[in-house]
């Protein structure tokens, strides 16, 4: 239990169990418990970095790589190749672009609402990755051709025998994997640890 608390920085009041008082701001030994606002800042910082990296990479790809030959990075194992994707991962669901746009917008709203109860740094990082990735692909859906809510996402990372993806997709997948790990460990976004 103590090890799990040190991983997530569970806030508590001296002598209180974290499950009983997740939002208290007290001390544990000589260490002050982190405040919830710091976790919100972490979430939006991670989201902003993920979003900026995705946006900048797509601007470079559109300017320098689109309508050009792919660039081999590691032989034929990894290359950069600009494509426009109307669907989801692996090019599936290309007829449902508007639905994917609405789903991305809903994910963003849910994450922003959840941020008010966020007291765990690992959860802040995971949700920040999801938020940044969702914002990156939503920007494409809203502002790229062929039109609003139907825009095609710019993908460019092309591993051999795998789908072409972008940095927003990578952030979403990494955030999702981290959420699964945190859930299996019993760590909640509010900083509590539960046992099933």
From TrEMBL:
<feature type="transmembrane region" description="Helical">
    <location>
        <begin position="121"/>
        <end position="143"/>
    </location>
</feature>
<feature type="active site">
    <location>
        <position position="155"/>
    </location>
</feature>
<keyword id="KW-0472">Membrane</keyword>
<feature type="region of interest" description="Disordered">
    <location>
        <begin position="1"/>
        <end position="32"/>
    </location>
</feature>
<comment type="function">
    <text>This protein specifically catalyzes the removal of signal peptides from prolipoproteins.</text>
</comment>
<keyword id="KW-0378">Hydrolase</keyword>
<protein>
    <recommendedName>
        <fullName>Lipoprotein signal peptidase</fullName>
        <ecNumber>3.4.23.36</ecNumber>
    </recommendedName>
</protein>
<dbReference type="InterPro" id="IPR001872">
    <property type="entry name" value="Peptidase_A8"/>
</dbReference>
<keyword id="KW-1003">Cell membrane</keyword>
<feature type="transmembrane region" description="Helical">
    <location>
        <begin position="95"/>
        <end position="114"/>
    </location>
</feature>
<dbReference type="Pfam" id="PF01252">
    <property type="entry name" value="Peptidase_A8"/>
</dbReference>
<keyword id="KW-0064">Aspartyl protease</keyword>
<keyword id="KW-0812">Transmembrane</keyword>
<feature type="transmembrane region" description="Helical">
    <location>
        <begin position="163"/>
        <end position="184"/>
    </location>
</feature>
<keyword id="KW-1133">Transmembrane helix</keyword>
<comment type="pathway">
    <text>Protein modification; lipoprotein biosynthesis (signal peptide cleavage).</text>
</comment>
<feature type="active site">
    <location>
        <position position="169"/>
    </location>
</feature>
<comment type="similarity">
    <text>Belongs to the peptidase A8 family.</text>
</comment>
<dbReference type="GO" id="GO:0004190">
    <property type="term" value="F:aspartic-type endopeptidase activity"/>
</dbReference>
<dbReference type="GO" id="GO:0006508">
    <property type="term" value="P:proteolysis"/>
</dbReference>
<feature type="transmembrane region" description="Helical">
    <location>
        <begin position="40"/>
        <end position="61"/>
    </location>
</feature>
<keyword id="KW-0645">Protease</keyword>
<dbReference type="GO" id="GO:0005886">
    <property type="term" value="C:plasma membrane"/>
</dbReference>
């Amino acid at each position: 239990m103590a090890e799990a608390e040190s991983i997530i920085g569970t806030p508590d009041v001296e002598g209180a169990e974290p499950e009983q008082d997740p939002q208290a701001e007290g001390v544990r030994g000589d260490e002050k418990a982190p405040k919830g606002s710091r976790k919100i800042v972490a979430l939006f910082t991670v989201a902003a970095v993920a979003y900026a990296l995705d946006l900048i990479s797509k601007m470079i790809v559109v300017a320098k790589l689109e309508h050009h030959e792919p660039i081999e990075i590691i032989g034929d194992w990894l290359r950069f190749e600009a494509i426009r994707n109307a669907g989801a991962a692996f090019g599936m669901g290309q007829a449902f672009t508007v639905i994917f746009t609405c789903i991305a917008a809903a994910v963003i709203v849910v994450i922003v609402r959840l941020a008010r109860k966020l007291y765990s740094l690992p959860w802040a990082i995971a949700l920040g990755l999801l938020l940044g990735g969702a914002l990156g692909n939503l920007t494409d859906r809203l502002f790229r051709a062929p039109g609003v809510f139907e825009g095609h996402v710019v993908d460019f990372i092309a591993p051999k025998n795998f789908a072409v993806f972008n940095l927003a997709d990578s952030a979403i997948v990494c955030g999702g994997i981290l959420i699964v790990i945190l859930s299996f460990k019993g760590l909640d976004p509010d900083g509590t640890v539960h046992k099933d």
